[in-house]
Amino acid sequence: MIPKVIILFLSTILIFLSTSPLTLIRAYLFFRPLVQPFANQHLTLFGSIPINAPLPLIVIFYSFLGCIFRKDFSIIVPKVIPLYLLLYWSMFSLYNTKFYLASIGFIFKILTAVSVYLFVYNAVHSVEDIKKLIKTICITCFVLIICGFYQVATKQGNIWYYGIVRMKSLFGSANPFGIFLSLCLIATLLMITIFDSKNKFYKFLFVMIIIASILGLNRGSWIAMSSALILGYFFFRNKIKFRYIIGPILIVFIIFSPIIILRFSEWSEVTPGNTFLARINMWKIILKLIPYHPFIGYGIGTADLLFQDLFGIRAWPHNDYLRLALEIGIGVIFYIYFLFSVLFLFLKNRYKNWKFNFCFVVLLLYWIIISIPQNIISNVINFPLFMALVACGVKYINLTATEDKKL
Fold first, then answer.
1. How far apart are CA 226 and CA 214, in angstroms?
2. Which of 29, 45, 91, 393 matches a 20 to 30 Å C-alpha distance to 285?
3. Residue 45 forms beta bridges with which residues?
4. Is the dihedral of CA 64, 68, 74, 77 positive or negative?
């Protein structure tokens, strides 16, 4: 009963905040991760409706309602067309799906992320607005990290070697939490380098994120973020020295080397932590299945159920590109195009406001890389959060370009 009351209370708050779009989306980004434990328990609201569904429904509703009735909102904003095509192709894949409820639920997840992108871009009208939104993400991260440290201190969750508790905070799983921390790392870096460099809180939070990422034992995020920083350096090597990139990476490795080395040592055939080989085997199976429905796939959101139907084992692909290729066929092209078109936008503007663009190039490179070994677009927190950050980045570029024209 209490979770239902909390959700209805938070939903009411969001509705009352609808007169201020920026405040509404900031409140949503803050509230949504905090109520994830309700979803982890598979609680429902009014029958079979997922208990947290009202919160994204409000964002979806006001996002498109604003495009109809508000003069400062537009349904066609930069880089949104590939997202609409992704959404359309996902609905098109319903023709082949055997699991309609799963497909409709996944379409709802994509619609939420697209709505957040649309909402953030339209709600932001100044650089100060971007700062407020990034600040909200940092505060949310701080709250979740505190929950994670409490989890570790009280030995809640799965205990790894030497009594270490793998931190997952409120996510219910450590890998999504690790991805969330990586996204927040970029948000915190933006606050440190651009928006509020004198505030020591963000520097403290930056360190906390790194420690939490180590305690989350997220190999994929370690590799993806390190690779993104190193690749990002080559695009900005005229602006930043290599030692400022590799130095912090080496320092983190040296300080936490016992945990990091032990974690990577699981990549041997005899240890239970070797999930990489299992993923490779699954990818091989997916590559064999894709040619049977190359145009519209087997139906969005059905990969795990498809595996259960064909092989008797419910398993997730752990690769967003192969997953989308399996589920919506050639529709995966729209998603890939969106990611790289935004990446090229930030690279194109890298000589102007280079610190800002560097952060977003690293963000896009991280997302592109981590999408190879993980399922991210299915996550109801990380995918919308990523879209919110990207929308901030795209809007910042357009705002600064407009200011230059005025000058």
1. 13
2. 91
3. 49
4. positive
Contacts of 58 (CB under 8 A, 6+ apart): 11, 14, 15, 18, 24, 28
Residue 366 CA: distances (Å) to CA of 237, 270, 321, 338, 357: 18, 30, 14, 15, 14
On whether the CB atoms of residues 359 and 189 are closer than 8 A, the answer is: yes
Nearest CA among 345, 331, 338, 339 for reference residue 369: 339
The pLDDT of residue 162: 58
| Pair of tokens at residue 396 | 């910042």
Instruction: Name the pTM for this structure.
Output: 0.95
* Nearest C-alpha neighbor of 30 from the set 136, 165, 187: 136
The 10s digit of each residue's pLDDT in 101-122 is: 999 999 999 999 999 999 999 9
- What separation in angstroms does the CA of 77 have from each of 119, 259, 265? 10, 44, 46
For residue 25, what are the CA distances in angstroms to 63, 125, 388? Answer: 10, 14, 9
Integer-rounded Cα radius of gyration of the chain: 21
Longest dimension (CA), the chain: 64
What residue type is assigned to position 2 of the chain? I
